[in-house]
Amino acid sequence: MSRHRFQATSSEFGPVTVWMGYDRPLDGFFFTVFDRSEDKCLYDNLRYSEPHPKSLDKWIAKAKEFGIALPAGLLEELQSERDNKIGNKVKTWDIEP
Question: Which of 12, 58, 59, 92 could form a cystine bridge with 66, CB 3.0-4.6 A?
Answer without folding.
Answer: 12
